[in-house]
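Re: duplicated header lines in exported structure tokens

Our pipeline writes sequence and tokens for each protein into one text file. With two proteins the header for the second block appears twice in some exports. Here is an export where it did not happen, for reference. First protein block:
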Amino acid sequence: MKKFNSARLRFLIMLAVLAVVAVGYFTAGGIGNFCGIGFDTITLLCPLGALLAMIAERTAIPMAVVSVLAVLAVCVVLGKVFCAWACPVHFMARGKKKGKRRASRASGSSVEGGTGSSSVAASSCGAADDPAVSRDAADGPAVAPALHAARTGESAAQAAAPAPERDKSLGMVSRSACSACTAPCGKAKGIKIDSRHGILAAALGSTLVFGFPVFCLICPIGLTFATVLLVMRLFAFGDTTWTVLAFPAIIAIEVLLLPKWCQRFCPLGALLSLFSGLNRTFRPRIDSEKCLLEGRGLSCNLYERACPEGINLHDVAAGETTLNDCSKCRACADVCPEHAITFPFLPNKGRGASASAPVPASVPAAAGGAASASAPASETPVASADGAADGGGAAERG
């Protein structure tokens, strides 16, 4: 059965929004665009633009206040859903990396197969570059440790241990066990302040100094809709203006040349992440029984590679940001070969993502390595390393 492709659905929704806006430019029933959308006197402004307008006027504007509160309510219920499901800039920024992702998958840095398959690559400890790992995993949890031990010189006990424990025994620290150290890598809850928040502060400060919303002049979302209007007028009425070239050039500089615009530079994304601090619905959850890492002890970080926000679901503190920045894009669920990641409406506290899950047990070393490997891997369930490492990450996922 073919897997559901969330990216295609999101792209179609974004195109539908652009089409509705474009048609509205030449009809009496237009709804505006994301800078200001609505009908007649009922209009919602961009939350960042609304804040900038109030700062520029140095007064509370009723329409702007209502717009900010409305977006805040949406973020509480759905999180940063706008970024992944409606914003055109998100797709332009992700589109330039599509070729790199395909090349990475072709080189073997992905996990393939459905439930029951165990062809694994791309661990944070460098297993992606070793074709033997995939062959070992394909033989199943019972046989793979002996083969791995024979190739690497490990003991059978080391090879049969879960990946995080095996890495530590060999002097390596995997990202899934990062939060077990005495000095955690970062926050597992709340907001991780980064460059986007600095640009947000700069946008607010420049508006206060100059008396008008400076950032709105270069906002790639507004420039995208302005470009659509200018191109339509160019072909419909023959209107020629230098902005037809200037606006796309600014968008190209911001989105195509600057690395990771949405993740590193976008002040609107920073504002929405602040608003999403109270969101608890549709957050990604890992089924420990299905997960290759938690359920079988196999190294897999495909979900983290696919996440546009850089969220590490197994160890939130070790990721680039927290679940407050989750845009519900479902990229992690799409790439998971075992369908272990879901987006429930509300978290199931009875079965948290980091709850104890059976992983391959450590097998005592024996004279015959293959004989020790034949022992059942599920006789001694062991709690996953990341589950006990970071209580904050568990609370976020569970």
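Second protein block, exported in the same file:
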Amino acid sequence: MKNRIALMSSLLLALATAPAWAHEDHVHDHLKDHQPRQGGVMVVIGHTDYELVAKPERLVIYVSDHGKPLATAGATGKVTLLTGKDKSEATLKPKGPNALEAVGSFKLGAGTKVLATVTLAGQKPSAVRFELK
């Protein structure tokens, strides 16, 4: 009976620590991995980082996974800007290896909300909400 209890205790201990062993090879600094790299506003959804760099003549959304660029070839997207009572929309098109861009004339300011729908090739659409500071 004592051997059974010892065996069960050992088994439970091994199972309880197994997830910790499995995670050791996947070590990264979450705070560092999710920092803006282009000077924009960062939003993280799941494992995907979206960084918006907003200028009056162009909006660029950079897409990465823990700092590693994700390909935007074949991606589609749309942005809706809400600045005070003004609302405008624009289409996002792939630009470079990991970015989507909308070109136009955009009214921006502190508190502007940018609602983006981004669909990477072969994936479901993601709704991303940014607020400019």
